[in-house]
Amino acid sequence: MRNRRRTALAVLAAAAATTLAGCGAGAEPPVRLAASGVDGLGLEQVRVGLAFDQGGRGDKSFNDAAAAGLDRAKKELEVDGREVTLSEETEEERAARLRELAEEGRNPVIAVGFLYAGAVRTVAAEFPGTTFAIVDDDSFSAPNVVSLVFAEEQGSYLTGAAAALKSRSGRVGFIGGVRIPLLQKFEAGFTAGATRARPGVKVSVDYLSAPPDFSGFGVPDKAEKIAQRMFAEGVDVVYTAAGGSGAGTLKAVAARKGTWAVGVDSDQYQTAEPGVRAAILTSMVKRVDNAVFQEIQAFIKGDRAGGVKRFDLKTDGVGYSVSNDKAIAPVRKKVDGLRRLILDGTVTVPTKP
Questions:
Q1: Is the torsion defined by CA of 330, 335, 340, 346 positive or negative?
Q2: Which of 32, 129, 233, 308 is the most buried (most CB within 10 A)?
Q3: Which CATH number is associated with domain 152-286+322-343?
Q4: How do residues 22-39 score in pLDDT, each as one tens digit?
Q5: What are the E-state strand segments in 46-155?
Q6: Three-state secondary-structure class, residue 302
Q7: What SS3 class is residue 310?
C-alpha cells in the first residue's frame, strides 16, 4: 500500500506540474481524469456509460446526436466510453442496461430519452455514488441525477417560420412521434413560428402514436403514408419530430417533386441520402451532442450534483440549420429576425399547442 501511495503521489505531482505549465502558457489544460478511489489518491481514466433510446446509434437523429457528444468526449477528453442499445422496449430492459453500466463502474451514466425516467429513478437510488444524467426529462429530482432538457419550442419556431415562408401553397405539416407534452412543444413552436412569419398559413398536424403506445419513434412506413396524405391535401413542407420514423417522411419527399422536409435533432442535410438531401429545407437542431459532452466535462471537473440544466437559443442548445444554403437563403434574413426577437425577449414561444 505504501508503494501504491508513493506512485499515486508521483502521478499527482506530475499532473500538477503539467497543469501549471499549461496555464503558464495561457492555455487551459485538457481535463480528462478523475479520482480513482484508492485511499483518495491516484488518477484514472473516466469511464462513461451511454444508454441509447429506441433505434440506437445510426438513427440519423436523436441518438446520433448523443453519440456525437460521446465521440467528442472520447477524442478531446480522452474518456473511455461504452454504449448500450435496448434489445426490447420495456421498463425492465431499460433498468437492466443502466444497472449493467453502473455495476461495471461506469460514471457518469447517461440515459438518452425521457422513456428512461422510471429506470433512472430506480437505478440511481441503487447506486447513490454514481452520477446519472437523463436527456429530455425533469419529471423527478434526486441528488445524483442531472436532467438535460431543451427549449425545443424555440428551435421549432424558427423552422416553422422557414417552412411557412418557403411554402408555395401556404400549407405546411407537422408529424409527431408520440402525442405527449414533450413532442407537443415541437408542434406548438412550429405552428407559432409559421403563423407569425406568414399569417393565414394552414398547419396540418398528426401523430404516429399516443400513450401508452410509444411505437411512433420507429414506424417510418407510417410516417411516409401520413406525409403522402398531407402532400395530397396541398401541404408542401413537412416537419417530422419522430426519431427514426422521420426516414419515412424523407422517402415521401424524395418521391414528390416540389415538396420539402424539415429535419429534427441533428442537421439531417448532412446525413441524408443524395437523392433527398436537396429537398431538406432545414432542421431543428437540438444540441444533444453539446449537452452530453458538457455533462461529461462537468463531471470530470467535479460537478457531480443533481439538478436541471436547460439548453436554449441563448446557450446554443437549439437552433435551425442552414447547410442547404441554396434553399434557405431566400428566407434566412426573416428567420434570423425572429430569432433575435426571441433572444431579446420580445417573443416568448409557447410550449403547448
A1: positive
A2: 32
A3: 3.40.50.2300
A4: 333 333 334 444 433 333
A5: 47-51, 80-84, 109-112, 132-135, 145-150
A6: coil
A7: strand
Between the CA of residue 23 and those of 18, 52, 118, 159, 302, what are the distances in Å?
Answer: 9, 37, 43, 42, 19
Per residue in 247-289, pLDDT (tens digit) is: 999 999 999 999 999 999 889 999 898 889 999 999 999 999 9
Sign of CA dihedral 100, 101, 103, 104: positive
pLDDT band at 89 (very low <50, low <70, confident <90, very high): confident
Domain extents for the chain? 29-150+289-311, 152-286+322-343
Same fold, 29-150+289-311 and 152-286+322-343: yes
pTM: 0.82
CB 269 within 8 A of CB 292: no
* CATH fold for domain 29-150+289-311: Rossmann fold (3.40.50)
